[in-house]
Amino acid sequence: MSARIIDGTAFAATLRGRVRNGVEALVRSHGVVPGLAVVLVGADPASQVYVKNKAGRTVEAGMRSFEHRLQDTTTEAELMTLIASLNADPAVHGILVQLPLPKQIRENAVLTAVDPAKDVDGFHPINAGLLATGKPGLVPCTPLACVMLAKDVLGSLEGLDAIVIGRSNIVGKPVAQLLLAESCTVTIAHSKTRDLAAVCARADLVIAAVGRPEIVKADWLKPGATVIDVGINRVAGAELGKMKLVGDVDFKACADKAGAITPVPGGVGPMTIACLLVNTLRAACAIAGATATV
Ligand code: GUN
Fold first, then answer.
1. N- or C-end of the chain: fewer Cβ atoms within 10 A?
2. From the alpha carbon of 142, which atom of ligand 1 is closest?
3. Whole-angstrom Cα distance, residue 277 to residue 144?
4. pLDDT at residue 1 is higher than 80
């Protein structure tokens, strides 16, 4: 293994410390304690774990955490009423509606109901449009995490060839926009891309966000490339009946070819919640008319 292993857990801990300092500064300067409201509809086990982790990290950062757990029979109208009250609540600076939502609720209608100034997921079309036009707004957390890690490894990204594998609204498209803003030459690859291996082989920076276990192979990589793996796939482990987590990248083989690579778990994953705290602090600062320090 020759690649530098990018330690997302350590980077996230440092980032959370910077957020905590920023929160203290905002409390001192404006008397404002940032508040994050997380809404969970239904009892999806993975979502329950995420929401619990988010609440714990929010309080650790010195912010207020508001949790709203609703039955999976909740109607869209009921959820809209809650979102309207959170939009109007001055103690709430960030609103996150955990996905996926039960099928009776239209995801798009809900995400567009969140006040764009409190949209710490960065999923509102207004924030997506601001990002696409290079204007300041709230940026989705996982893409922000990818770019922070890449810049930590490479310094400036200017002029680099970057490939984003995956074109989702949550990761692929926004991370491509962020890399463009960093002056990378960006290719967005997807399931219909012809000869993905050849496109990947030109890239100095690979962002894998397709949700397919270990599809990125070592022989696709340019030697020394930086590889950021967004995938979290649960697959059968070596031991009978045991599951394990793997990314979208064949980590073991790629670590011999890449210059730097994120592991799964311990790479992008821990960074995502830290970036949610960054966004909540940024939203609180913008609403209070303060300058964000993180
Ligand atoms: N479910 C899984 N990841 C996410 C995320 O980043 N934001 C929201 N709102 N729900 C999710």
1. N
2. 6
3. 12
4. no
Residue with CA at minimum distance from ligand 1 atom 8: 98
Q: What sign for the dihedral angle of Cα 1, 262, 206, 188?
A: positive
Tell me the pLDDT tens digit for each residue of 114-140.
999 999 999 999 999 999 999 999 999
Rounded to 5 degrees, what angle do the CA atoms 205, 170, 91 make? 120
**pTM passes above 0.90:** yes
Write out pLDDT tens, residues 230-281.
999 999 999 989 999 999 999 999 999 999 999 999 999 999 999 999 999 9
Task: For residue 211, tell me if it sits in a domain.
Answer: yes
Question: At residue 126, what are phi and psi to the nearest 5 degrees?
Answer: -65, -45
The predicted structure's pLDDT at residue 293:
84
Find the domain containing 73 and state its range.
33-116
The number of the ligand 1 atom at minimal distance from the alpha carbon of 47 is 1
Here the contacts of 231-240 (C-beta below 8 Å, separation 24 or greater) are 231/264, 232/264, 232/265, 232/269
Q: Would residue 121 show up in a list of annotated catalytic residues for this protein?
A: yes
Contact 86, 92 (CB under 8 A): yes
Q: Is residue 98 part of a domain?
A: yes
Q: Which residues of 27-55 are buried (b: 16+ CB within 10 A; e: fewer)?
A: eeeeebebbbbbbbbbebeebeebbeebe
Nearest to 286 by CA among 177, 127, 50: 127
225 has a pLDDT exceeding 90: yes
Q: What string of DSSP letters covers 129-171? A: HHHHTT------HHHHHHHHHHHHHHS--TT-EEEEE---TTT
- Note whether 172 and 256 are same-domain residues: yes
The active-site residue, picked from 98, 115, 248, 250, is 98
76 within domain boundaries: yes
Q: Which residues line ligand 1 (CB under 6 A)?
A: 96-99, 121, 141
Q: Number of structural domains, the chain?
A: 2
